[in-house]
Amino acid sequence: MGSGQVTSWQGKNITVAGLGVSGISAARALAGLGASVTVVDGGDSEGHRAKAAELAGPGVSVRLGDAETLPEGTGLVVTSPGWKPDSPLFRAAAEAGVDVVGDVEIAWLLRDSRPDRKAAPWLAVTGTNGKTTTTQMLASILRAAGLRTAAVGNIGTPIIDVVLGEEEYDVLAVELSSYQLHWAPSVRAHSAAVLNLAPDHLDWHGSMEAYAADKGRIYEGNTVACVYNVADAATERLVEEADVEEGCRAIGFTLGAPGPSMLGVVDGILVDRAFVENRQRNAQELAEVADVNPPAPHNIANALAAAALARAFGVPPRAVRDGLRDFRPDAHRVARVDEVDGVVYVDDSKATNTHAAEASLAAFEPAVWIAGGLAKGATFDELVQKSGKRLRGAVLIGADRALIAEALARHAPEVPVVDLDRTDTGAMLAAVREAARLAEPGDTVLLAPACASMDMFANYNERGDAFADAVRELAAGSA
């Protein structure tokens, strides 16, 4: 299956694992190509049954309540990204000699299936943090260059639907998670970037080494550029270890002055010393730091990575500037909510791990930090060691808040800490009020939890909304 070629899907027995968005997309697409598809899901709720009833039809059957048994005659398993490699279904597939791939792999194999058009090249982005923002920045830059594009993969419309859809594209900006890369052995991007590497999802991958190896798959077979983070040596090592096409270049990005074959920052200007003539001596101005929204350090790094991928595709400098100016970040990503009594309230609920929280805290000082949730196996000592001096105080919420409290006690004992032992719907309002009590005019109250949200909220969006609602209630009380 790793060859990247499938002669025909007609009559092939395929099991799709998971009744989520990507699973439904894969099932419909493969059935439409003549495959016989069985979707399996361990759930059997009313919602699952409704999805099953809507999906079932010619070429598709759905089995609920059993996600462990491999359907008889299965020739290929297509998994949704979140399913762990050691799932019983996949162990059964391995014992039967059946390949397991993801929806991204299927999209890659289907990209040439439309005889009426040429397959769009992929510019791919991964990393522990910043993937979505960078991919969306890249799409904005490509559009500013007049190219037909879409941001796909781990965001937006399922990538299979885009590949098989009616709209034709010149190039795709593709966000890929470590889960997706694990199940996508054939993908070969035009150019790709690994933004950063920090411990995350280790319960899924089993080790940091396995996690990094899956991230590094994004560089395999690149044809033009492998973009890496100069400040993160692990990303450069992944480039060095990758098997790329002859002539593919390593391109670094840095918040400092760039060397040859790098993009960086000089006197508030984003500059390119990679895709210019005589890069030993010359540099090309691309945009101003002020063109990046928001101009926090980690977001400037995102912009440089997006610019590097766009320049690798031949995009002119003006389009980089215009695309960055046009870009608007999604909600809950370093989003200013309001200012109350001289204190600014910022929602970065998307900071669901320590690396993201560290980047967020680096943009604000002094800050009152609201943090906590599900740690996902993470530790917080390094984060507190690096960021503790920026803190006016900390308000801790969620199931694993004690881990953060212990790290603060060890490495920043002078920081006042409020430990909120509650998970009811009013907990976020209480957290915001405690943060307001600790803050002084000129401070920032920053929601950057460094943890997942599912102990108290449906997702990070709901958590961020609760924070924003709490800030608005605080503002109304101060008016």
Briefly, what is this?
By secondary structure, the chain is an alpha/beta fold.
| Neighbour order of strands in the largest sheet | 7-8-6-9-10-11-12-13-14
Structural class: alpha/beta
Main pleated-sheet profile: 9 strands, mixed
| Total strands | 20
Beta-strand residue fraction: 15-25%
Radius of gyration: 23 Å
Helix percentage range: 25-40%
User: Which residue ranges are poorly predicted, with pLDDT under 50 across at least 5 consecutive positions?
Assistant: none
- Shape designation: globular
Termini separation (Å)?
A: 63 Å
Name the average pLDDT.
93
* Number of helices, where a helix is a run of at least 4 consecutive DSSP H or I residues: 17
Report on this model:
With 479 residues, the chain is of the alpha/beta class. The chain is built from 17 helices and 20 strands. β10, α10 and β11 form a beta-alpha-beta unit. α5 packs across α11, α5 crosses α12 and α9 packs across α10. The longest helix has 19 residues.
Supply database-style keywords.
479 residues, alpha/beta, nine-stranded mixed sheet, six-stranded mixed sheet, 17 helices, 35% helix, 19% strand, globular
Describe the secondary-structure layout.
Layout: E1 13-17, H1 21-32, E2 36-41, H2 46-55, E3 60-64, E4 76-79, H3 88-95, E5 100-102, H4 103-110, E6 122-126, H5 131-144, E7 151-153, H6 159-164, E8 172-175, H7 178-182, E9 191-194, H8 202-205, H9 208-216, E10 225-229, H10 233-241, E11 249-253, E12 262-266, E13 269-272, E14 284-288, H11 297-312, H12 317-326, E15 335-340, E16 343-347, H13 354-361, E17 367-371, H14 381-387, E18 391-396, H15 401-411, E19 417-419, H16 427-438, E20 444-447, H17 460-478
Parallel strand pairs: 1-2, 1-4, 2-3, 4-5, 6-8, 6-9, 7-8, 9-10, 10-11, 11-12, 16-20, 17-18, 17-20, 18-19
Antiparallel strand pairs: 12-13, 13-14, 15-16
